[in-house]
Automatic annotation (TrEMBL):
Keywords: Elongation factor, Protein biosynthesis. This is Translation elongation factor. Residues 74-247 form the DUF6997 domain. InterPro entries: DUF6996, DUF6997, DUF7226. The keyword Chaperone does not apply. It comes from Lentibacillus cibarius. Residues 5-73 form the DUF6996 domain. GO terms for molecular function: translation elongation factor activity.
Amino acid sequence: MNLTDKAWNNLFDRYNILDEIQENGTYEIKAKTIREEREPRLMAKFDHSNNLPKLFKEYGLSILPLTRSSYVIGDFDVYKKVTYDNKIKPKSIYFPPHITTIDPTNLYSESSALHCAFVTGMIDEVLGEEAVQTISGRMSSKEFDFDIRSKKGFDHTVNIKNAQVEIDGGYESNSYFMLIEAKKESVDDFLVRQLFYPYRLWQDKTPKQIKPVFFTHSNDVFSFFVYEFTDDRRYNSLRLVEQKDFIIAHEEITLEDILGTLDKTTTVAEPQIAFPQADSFTRIVDLLGLLVENDLSKDHITMNYDFDDRQTNYYTTAGIYLGLIERYINDSRKEVMFKLTSRGRKIMASSYKQKYLGLVSSILEHEPFRQVLIEYIQSGYPPEKSRVVEIMKRCNLYNIESDSTYKRRSSSIFSWIDWILDLTQA
């Protein structure tokens, strides 16, 4: 268990929180009570369901702020699943050449990605009107009530009074006011509160139609999920209206580029580290992007991004396998930390085409991936799983013994090769 898990276990035991929830449906807790174990800002903000403490996951619980100094715990349905429509081809947008203070190849924070989206006209296109940014940052929610769905099928009424609200970007046009919650990685879900509280606050402050938008910047694709609340009083009335994807115009990657990279890349001996069990290479790229800004601890990755504890292990290990991430111990805090290697940092600082071909090369240095790609291109279709396992068994992979493990790990080969070939369609 991490520190947050242990702290919540202690609080649940000390104050019989689970018994109170089972009897009354919810439990209100003060920030000063949470502070007996850890700072509330570390204990009560879980942007994705993956981030929830183990005890919350076990009993289907979540937590919402009521005021600046109190929270409510209950079996609330607080998250919205995000499904990326892969049939949408991102629209290519040109970056204005007169802008020198934004580097579109180096967008490794939520704010930089949003600034880039604004100066390139993506925001205007999503709204359908010319817009200006008018707000961002922290503010007070004021007072309002709402109903939220229980996982058992009934509603709870929640009363909010001056809770803290944080808005990543607010953009106003003639007819609309768009509120954006932004993430710098692809996600499986998000916390609806991050749109609902700002929506309810600004609903009373502007006569314009409010457009709540969830935004992600992942693998250089800007994705806008435009929503509406069909019932202003109901937290769970969020409905997806449309998804719009954009990408900054760049030099295209062709199959010839992939073949050229394959030809120039020399294979290396298999490292003495677990063979990747990380099926989404997109998420590896996201993790590399997060590490551009700062070295991150294992707990920080698990608690702040859409990774559970197991996924953090899988994806950091995959980055180490590729020679792009390294692991070390922070002596002062005795924490496991991760950082980019010099090679990883060089690749992530490159232009779009060179970055992705550099990532391709880091994959194709490894014989199993190289051989599968060659056979895929030669035949025009992916090899059978049995053939991929046969290739893997010839490559002296570290610490894989059973056939079931070979079969399970082969899924990473299939998905990474698909990722490489999809680059030619971006």
